[in-house]
């Protein structure tokens, strides 16, 4: 099974102070896709520079030619399907059809209350996600949409001429629970996971593999329940939250070992974070570039 290697570029650098160069480097190194987080701020980066995902991806689209671009992930926390659809249609046009929307239910971080609202309960997040994804699907595939929902509405919302990619740009749905997995099966062209968060701090590589194997089995079950074949669903692992998040970037050999084990599970794309000094994503820049250019060839 073939494996793709992608990267995440966090929007922490001003465009003319190194931000632009990171996206150009990602294309030069041959990454399949370069994603960015779609947050208003994020964890330990909250008190430092943090730029918007859609403008950043638009700028990246203008200076790259082959690199796919995407969010990992967008959520309903501060997005509305109608305005998001218009931004995505425009971004897909500017990039020439190179955009993937990573989308998830969101969490209880800073985004959850930035607009002045109370943080939603897990149940409400799931309820909103279940309404958000199908409506966004319609908005990106139909020229005019009217919808009156519990959380989101549209009144003859227009998206003309639609996406460059047909019938719309691909969705990469992040989910591990049964409701989210059914959304992934019904609307996704890809599925995204970060692994089991309970193993993040003290879990082992073997425990992580077993947890991922269980998630993949649940995804297959979700496909069976809606009567859709699971292939050619892409399966994406965002690696920065696995127990091996640090050691796998120590050397090309370490990453090849990590990648091989996860390819055997059925993953088709691994995503590694571009290094950020003095952060949880600190890594050797030289090794990062070696992994980008050499690792997949060693997998065979």
Q: Mind explaining what this structure looks like?
A:
The chain has helices at residues 19-28, 53-63, 81-95, 122-141, 178-187, 205-226, 252-265, 285-299, and strands spanning 4-8, 33-36, 68-74, 99-103, 144-148, 153-158, 171-174, 190-193, 234-238, 269-273. α4 packs parallel to α5, α5 (178-187) packs across α6 (205-226) and α7 (252-265) packs across α8. It is α/β, with parallel strands linked by helices.
Task: Give the count of helical stretches.
Answer: 8
Order of helices and strands: EHEHEHEHEEEHEHEHEH
**Rg, Å, rounded:** 19 Å
Which ranges are low-confidence, i.e. pLDDT below 50, for 5 or more consecutive residues?
A: none
Instruction: Give the overall shape.
Output: globular
Mean pLDDT across residues: 96
Annotation, overall tally of beta strands? 10
Helix content: 25-40%
Distance between the termini: 10 Å
> Pairing-aware structural class of the strands and helices?
alpha/beta
Strand content: 15-25%
Q: Describe the biggest sheet?
A: 8 strands, parallel, barrel
Order of the strands making up the biggest sheet: 1-2-3-4-7-8-9-10
Question: Can I get a quick summary?
Answer:
The chain has helices spanning 19-28, 53-63, 81-95, 122-141, 178-187, 205-226, 252-265, 285-299; strands at 4-8, 33-36, 68-74, 99-103, 144-148, 153-158, 171-174, 190-193, 234-238, 269-273. It is an alpha/beta fold and 300 residues long. A hairpin with a 4-residue loop joins β5 (144-148) and β6 (153-158).
């Amino acid at each position: 099974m073939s494996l793709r290697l992608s990267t995440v570029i966090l929007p922490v650098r001003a465009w003319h102070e190194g931000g632009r160069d990171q996206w150009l480097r990602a294309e030069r190194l041959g990454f399949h896709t370069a994603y960015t987080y779609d947050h208003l701020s994020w964890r330990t980066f909250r008190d430092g520079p943090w730029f918007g995902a859609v403008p950043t991806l638009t700028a990246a689209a203008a200076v790259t030619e082959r690199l796919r671009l995407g969010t990992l992930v967008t959520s309903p926390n501060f997005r509305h399907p109608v305005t998001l659809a218009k931004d995505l249609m425009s971004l897909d046009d500017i990039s020439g059809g190179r955009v993937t929307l990573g989308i998830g239910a969101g969490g209880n971080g800073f985004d959850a209350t930035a607009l002045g609202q109370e943080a939603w309960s897990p149940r409400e997040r799931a309820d909103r996600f279940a309404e958000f994804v199908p409506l966004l699907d319609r908005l990106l595939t139909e020229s005019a949409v009217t919808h009156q929902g519990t959380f989101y509405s549209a009144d003859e919302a227009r998206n003309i001429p639609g996406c460059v990619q047909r019938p719309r740009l691909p969705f990469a749905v992040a989910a591990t629970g049964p409701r989210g997995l059914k959304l992934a099966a019904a609307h996704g062209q890809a599925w995204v996971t970060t692994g089991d968060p309970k193993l993040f701090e003290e879990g082992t590589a073997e425990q992580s593999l077993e947890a991922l194997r269980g998630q993949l089995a649940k995804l297959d079950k979700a496909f069976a329940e809606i009567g859709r074949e699971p292939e050619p669903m892409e399966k994406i692992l965002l690696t920065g939250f696995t127990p091996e998040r640090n050691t796998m970037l120590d050397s090309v050999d370490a990453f090849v070992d990590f990648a091989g084990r996860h390819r055997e599970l059925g993953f088709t794309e691994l995503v590694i974070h571009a290094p950020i000094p003095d952060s949880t994503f600190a890594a050797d820049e030289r090794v990062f570039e070696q992994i980008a250019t050499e690792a997949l060839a060693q997998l065979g």
